Amino acid sequence: MDSEDDFNSSQMSEDDFAQDSDVEIDEGKDAESARSSSCDASDTWTVDSDFDDDVGFESQDKDIKPNKHAYEVDFNVFEPSQIQASQHKQIAEVSSILVQPPEATAILLRHMRWNKERLIDQYMEKPEETLESAGLGQDAATNPPKITKIQGFCCDICCEDGPELDTFAMRCGHRFCVDCYRQYLYTKIKDEGEAARIRCPGDKCNRVVDSKSLDLLVGDDLHDRYQELLTRTYVDDKEKLRWCPAPNCVYAVECAVKDRELPRVVPTVHCDCGHYFCFGCSLNDHQPAPCSLVKRWLKKCEDDSETANWISANTKECPKCHSTIEKNGGCNHMTCRKCRNEFCWMCMGLWSEHGTSWYNCNRFEEKSGSEARDAQAKSRQSLERYLHYYNRYANHEQSAKLDKDIYLKTEKKMQQLQSSTGMSWIEVQYLDTASHALQQCRQTLKWTYAFAYYLARNNLTEIFEDNQKDLEMAVENLSEMFEKPIDQLQGLKVDMMDKTAYCNKRRIILLNDTAENLKQGNWEFNVALS
Amino acid sequence: MSAGAKKRIMKEYTECMNDPPTGMKINFNEQNMTKWEVLVDGPEQSIYAGGHFKLEINFPNEYPFKPPVVSFKTKIYHPNVSNDDKGSMCLGLLRADEWKPPNKVVAVLRLIQTLLIEPNQDDAIEPSIANEYKENRKEFEKNAKDWVKRYAK
């Protein structure tokens, strides 16, 4: 499953899930109903939402999917029961190869972070050592765990004794009373969130508590939490699986894009809960900018943007040594504290040329002054360039928020429209669709500016900027319509639907162009994509 | 706190009294048995010799399933003790993932004693002090002795 051949491996894992869902039909049905309810009406334009619904059941759907766009990646969404089933299946499979009971196999697999091939290789070579390092010790196969009463036993944790005391020990023989054992597991699972690698409570013992022992000791409430944590480590351990980062979302997404491919592709996935996120870095959808640029940009904005704005507004640079200077009062006769250069704050020229009687600079045409200003302009250019992109980036972020506010009002408008004009619910959905498109396009636009900041200039850049401009205009046009009063909205329905479709189309064109060129490595960036 | 935990702390206290670790005196208050005050003499062979350090051991409600919390009430110049008003320690046995319920306080006290004789430079809470300990032992010893004179007499 972890073979180098991405296509095969992703096919294989799909089949895994497909078979699992055949075995557990009930869960499969639940999955279906959960999906259809969470599918939101506004995505009708995205092609991928069509096949998401059948994911894991008919994998061949993907092959006949009509014209996938260059910026889209293949992915599947799984719910917890499916992930659990897939674990069981792998455990059963490896269990039969290693001739170890499923509990031990599960521990081995978790110990090896679910790398089946490596586990099998290592086990075949050195079975004893492999078991030992996973915390299993020898012969886990015989003697199932059981609770017993032992004469003359005293629990080393609570110091209780007595012949009626229930006690438990795993194969390592570290015996404690059942209450203490249970409390220990409870603390580990509930408080510390551990599951896959809980060790025996015995001093310095590294044996891992297996699920059979756990079943024997803990109640249902803890058992559910335990399973949940196991599933969580499974997803964390698997390179191809990732949790949807949306709050309260329980789905995990599978995508074959590997870390090393990230400079060439921006793998945005769409969870069944409705959230769009990047599979590479779990941040919100940031197409067309690749993950490393996004990381760089966010860091830069965090570090720089406020400072840069302030510097740009309030300071100038010394014409000689380029130290940044804030004028905090007084006259225009400046003396740089660093290089002792004396200059005029107004024209940036040498003070010596001003003579002694000038305290109001009107010497704009002087040569030394204009040269100094040119130099200043040049050194400020990089700052201004950054601010140019940052302001547009921030503007779209802000506008998206405002659009959302307007949308909330729009929802009310939709209700009003329904009651005042007698339009049906379905007939007012165009507002919802439009708002959704607006959000998505702004998100894309926002990131085009971060992308553009790192882009070196060439012919491709011009095409990119044209695309950006077209999308921006389309978006602003649509956005404007939302501000129209309610009584005009009905008449604008067709126009609005047209504009929505146009926005979506422009977005797809832009994303296709950037993704295509990214894949082929055509973009030149002024930083390294790592 | 459960009756079991109280029973266990009592038992541990009795054990400590029967065989007290050298150079340590435990102040135990039956009204508040989850907070022990321990007076530690700097071990003879260590740079802390001659100093008297006040320690506080707090037993969490989940004791013995969670480790006790140790803090130095007397300031000490040591890589494994935080240089603030808490004087906290967090290494070895005292970490939640290392602690096992059968471990005893007496083991914690022994650990502290060993650390006074030989600090653990790889698991330091004060990296700058650890670095000095590693790179410039003379300076470290001077500072540590200085602090003993200033705070621990």
Can you give the helix content of chain B as a percent range?
25-40%
Query: Low-confidence parts of chain B, pLDDT < 50 over ≥5 residues?
Result: none
CATH top level of chain B? Alpha Beta
Second rung of CATH, namely the architecture of chain B: Roll
Protein name (chain A): RBR-type E3 ubiquitin transferase
Catalytic activity (chain A): [E2 ubiquitin-conjugating enzyme]-S-ubiquitinyl-L-cysteine + [acceptor protein]-L-lysine = [E2 ubiquitin-conjugating enzyme]-L-cysteine + [acceptor protein]-N(6)-ubiquitinyl-L-lysine
Domain RING-type (chain A): 151-365, 155-204
GO molecular function (chain A): ubiquitin protein ligase activity; zinc ion binding
Give keywords.
heterodimer; A: about 525 residues; mainly alpha; Four Helix Bundle (Hemerythrin (Met), subunit A); 3 domains; three-stranded antiparallel sheet; 16 helices; 12 strands; about 55% helix; extended; disordered N terminus; B: about 150 residues; alpha+beta; Ubiquitin Conjugating Enzyme; four-stranded antiparallel sheet; 4 strands; globular
Would you give an account of this structure?
By secondary structure, chain A is mostly helical. Chain A contains 16 helices and 12 strands. Chain A has helices at residues 6-23, 25-38, 48-52, 80-98, 102-111, 116-125, 127-133, 178-191, 211-217, 220-237, 291-314, 367-421, 429-453, 459-481, 486-489, 493-519, and strands at residues 75-78, 148-149, 166-168, 176-177, 241-243, 252-255, 268-270, 276-278, 315-317, 324-326, 333-335, 342-344. With 153 residues, chain B is α+β, with helices and mostly antiparallel strands. Chain B is built from 4 helices and 4 strands. The longest helix of chain B has 16 residues, at 3-18. The radius of gyration of chain B is 16 Å and the shape is globular.
